[in-house]
Amino acid sequence: MEEKTNKISRVPEIAGVSNFVNEIKQLIDSVSEKTFSVCLYGEKGTGKKLFAQSVHLKSSKNLRNFVEINCRSFDENTINELLQSYAQLDLVDSRTTLFVNYIEELTDASQIIFLDAVKSFLSKNLNLQIISSTEYSPDKLKEVLNGDLLFYLKNVQLNFIPLRNRKEDIIPIANYYLERFNKGSGLELQGFTNTALQALQDNFWAGNADELINCIQHAFIVCKNKIIDCADLTLGTNSMEKLDMTLKDAVDSFKRDYITKVLEANNWNQTKTAKVLGIQRTYVIKLINELQINKN
Question: Most-buried pick from 56, 184, 274, 284 (CB within 10 A)?
């Protein structure tokens, strides 16, 4: 079982101007006032986890109790570990959000055990909200999920629309995350060229908002000027150029580019760079040596 109890203090906004985004924001307000369960349908990367985090932050004064379960690694042998983890949480005095991801991956045996656990928690009238998510359609989910369990998980149902079907949200999302990256690094990129904006607008975005955010982050790192151009975006054939790299090489390449950029923005002051990166100055020095970063 992959389980995380996160201490959340801030999450990104749900950016966009479409009717869908406006409805999502309104639903966050209404859902956060109650503890009824919510089931989220939609493709990977459409913002289901961000919705769950936003509901939790809206409803909870105690931000510790956001629990995420990845059902792809959840089985009947881990239920005791799960229950012990919940027993340690302050479920009575503060809201706890249980985000159950990939519910379509639960085995038949896991579904029965999980159903018993849900009934147990609800019978105690705990301040617990269950938000589940799936990449299946509602009809397909019915074919693989226990009917009784599904009954408890879908007081409210919400379908997340792919980004390619709400293109009016692409540029607002890109601008929002560029501004976030600017604030987090101390850099001041000023936006996108018209050709870059058009390329973003025309892209298919199979990975939805997650893919778009990763694209903006990459462009932010490799951009040599104050404004992002098409050459800085990983679109089309550009995104395929380095698929022969190992994961370690790809991670090191990302670290090298980003750390170099932050160092440049802070005139190679290691203390200021460490503060921006949120790490110790000694670790910055270690990374500079390991990644062979030099001023020239």
Answer: 56
